[in-house]
């Protein structure tokens, strides 16, 4: 039996179907999860997809953080369940305090949509083992509230512990401190990033590359060999 990876749909989710397709392309079984259901249907991992849950009212992810499904996600993530937050999902992970820091509006105050060059900083998490540290990849980026911020103590701790997972290269598209594009928790089972790997899994769409596919093959390999 193949690994089962849940994808949560919130009101305003945009990329849940794309994420399900990426999971299927990697060889796993995508499982649709609804934000009002606490039951995770015995999935082996969870993805919080991109979009504009609840219209980003108050703050991006601030309302969806209190959805019933998140009660279970938070509990199981702290117990080791692999969780990936993409864009709005990353914002949600910070609101749920599964990852440190916060997401603010882009420093130029405009929505941005572009192919973004990244450097892989940590290739030892549940979601990044298919990469090599220092590898440069191109992943689509689209956000309005993508500026990662944290206090200096937290930033220094993330750097010292190797918990910066991805860093922007060539240009910082949103003013994120220290060019941070994605981070991981201490255990390496929870990862959040602003760019969209699910849009870089087939050569005919997105960047025309498959640089995002290793996110999904990485977790599949971990689950199959666990």
TrEMBL record:
CDD domains named in the record: GATase1_FGAR_AT (cd01740)
Subunit structure: Part of the FGAM synthase complex composed of 1 PurL, 1 PurQ and 2 PurS subunits.
Coiled coil: none
Record's keyword terms, sorted: ATP-binding, Cytoplasm, Glutamine amidotransferase, Hydrolase, Ligase, Nucleotide-binding, Purine biosynthesis
E.C. numbers: 6.3.5.3, 3.5.1.2
Protein name: Phosphoribosylformylglycinamidine synthase subunit PurQ
Described purpose of this protein according to its UniProt entry: Part of the phosphoribosylformylglycinamidine synthase complex involved in the purines biosynthetic pathway. Catalyzes the ATP-dependent conversion of formylglycinamide ribonucleotide (FGAR) and glutamine to yield formylglycinamidine ribonucleotide (FGAM) and glutamate. The FGAM synthase complex is composed of three subunits. PurQ produces an ammonia molecule by converting glutamine to glutamate. PurL transfers the ammonia molecule to FGAR to form FGAM in an ATP-dependent manner.
InterPro entries found in the cross-reference section: Class_I_gatase-like (IPR029062), PRibForGlyAmidine_synth_PurQ (IPR010075)
Pfam families: GATase_5
Subcellular localization: Cytoplasm
């Amino acid at each position: 039996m193949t690994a089962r990876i849940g994808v949560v749909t919130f009101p305003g989710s945009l990329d849940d179907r794309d994420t399900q397709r990426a999971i299927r392309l990697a060889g796993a079984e995508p499982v649709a999860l609804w934000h009002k259901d606490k039951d995770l249907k015995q999935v082996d991992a969870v993805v919080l997809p991109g979009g504009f849950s609840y219209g980003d009212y108050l703050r991006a992810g601030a309302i969806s953080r209190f959805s019933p499904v998140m009660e279970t996600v938070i509990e199981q993530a702290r117990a080791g369940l692999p969780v990936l937050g993409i864009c709005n999902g990353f914002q949600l992970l910070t609101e749920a305090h599964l990852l440190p820091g916060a997401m603010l509006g882009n420093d130029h105050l405009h929505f941005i949509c572009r192919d973004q060059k990244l450097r892989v900083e940590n290739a030892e998490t549940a979601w990044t083992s298919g990469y090599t540290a220092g590898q440069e990849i191109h992943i689509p980026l689209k956000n309005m509230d993508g500026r990662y911020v944290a206090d200096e103590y937290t930033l220094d701790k993330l750097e010292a512990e190797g918990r910066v997972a991805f860093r922007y290269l060539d240009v910082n598209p949103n003013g994120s401190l220290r060019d941070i594009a994605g981070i991981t928790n201490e255990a390496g089972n929870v990862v959040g990033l602003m760019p969209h790997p699910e849009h870089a899994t087939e050569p005919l769409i997105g960047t025309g590359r498959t640089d995002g596919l290793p996110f999904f093959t990485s977790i599949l390999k971990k689950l199959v060999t666990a």
